[in-house]
Prior knowledge:
This is Sodium:proton antiporter. By secondary structure, the protein is mainly alpha-helical. The protein has helices at 7-19, 39-56, 58-61, 66-86, 90-123, 126-136, 141-159, 161-176, 180-198, 206-213, 226-241, 262-282, 288-307, 309-322, 326-333, 340-345, 349-368, 370-381, 384-394, 400-410, 416-429, 438-446, 453-457, 460-477. The model is unreliable at 1-30 (pLDDT under 50).
Amino acid sequence: xxxxxxxxxxxxxxxxxxxxxxxxxxxxxxxxxxxxxxxxxxxxxxxxxxxxxxxxxxxxxxxxxxxxxxxxxxxxxxxxxxxxxxxxxxxxxxxxxxxxxxxxxxxxxxxxxxxxxxxxxxxxxxxxxxxxxxxxxxxxxxxxxxxxxxxxxxxxxxxxxxxxxxxxxxxxxxxxxxxxxxxxxxxxxxxxxxxxxxxxxxxxxxxxxxxxxxxxxxxxxxxxxxxxxxxxxxxxxxxxxxxxxxxxxxxxxxxxxxxxxxxxxxxxxxxxxxxxxxxxxxxxxxxxxxxxxxxxxxxxxxxxxxxxxxxxxxxxxxxxxxxxxxxxxxxxxxxxxxxxxxxxxxxxxxxxxxxxxxxxxxxxxxxxxxxxxxxxxxxxxxxxxxxxxxxxxxxxxxxxxxxxxxxxxxxxxxxxxxxxxxxxxxxxxxxxxxxxxxxxxxxxxxxxxxxxxxxxxxxxxxxxxxxxxxxxxxxxxxxxxxxxxx
Length: 486
């Protein structure tokens, strides 16, 4: 029910954009065949729309979102292969396919390293320690509302908005318990904060990462979105905070002992980020080269942890026996060697495969000529500023990943200010609805029955104020960047 109510709106927008163009460009950047008014083109759009309907119904069908888009991508490219073979243009289709595969491969490897580091930090109990500290301090609900929101805002630029939102939600659920009003409003605050925090960092969201890797915005230029991102979070948070109860929940004391090497993994992750930025800024190589080098840092450190594990356990065992600490002995007995490849295996593969399906589907539609058509409508006939603001609103209905990939595939000629605008809009626009971002969808599952679509929708007018304020501030502060064309 929650997602079905939103479906007709984005379907209407999609078909309007696809079929209301007054003029169409032929081909595109890849000089492919224009098949927008062919049966194959209509079939490809229908397959993609149907696959995306299944994605939006994931919660009800219990069907992982990667499955329909993987199948749709295969069918669409099979049709493209057949048509291009009949026209004797197989080489063009193959080059387009390889280009899209390369785009996906760079993002896949980048995200895989980032997810591996986050998983390693989780395994070393860093997030458990943070959660236990907040729970044990005895904060009241309003203070906890602000702490979880601010932490979500400042952690998400490094640990990505999805991981950060789930971590803060775990704290809220542990403290809030059955206090449904607090859990709902705190989860909304976390979603808005995590998405806003991820908008000014290439590591905060897949959409910002895509823009950075495409070379439209440099690493340091994302910092121009810092103040607009703060405003996007603070405006709704200030208003919502007046409706958060001041009651104090029961304090839960829990001791969490960090595993060996936990803090050093944080330092290695920071070093990995610096390496990725250096490869991109100094050598103009894709950042993924630096990230893969950073994975080697973690692998060598894992080797060190395994080789020194026996000596470390011997010292801890002797100390525990001397202190007659049975709990410590039990913890020592449950220690297992750190394994980097186990961390890689625990990456969110459904999300990574979903992203593959989206990239290949959108790439196929681009080769058929549809993205050229859409680009002709919104980025030629409209002012780019309004087009980018509209992209942000669309990202609250359709997930921001396919929206941003479609924009990048269109390759509109825009100023740096407009590239920052579309990055901001797509990143924070997903907060308008609970289904607009991965963070919102994940929290609906984590806080099932307490954080809901309609519970989030009730605060949509307040979130829209933050969305409008952040865009207005960006236009005011960074107006000079709208004269810089790359």
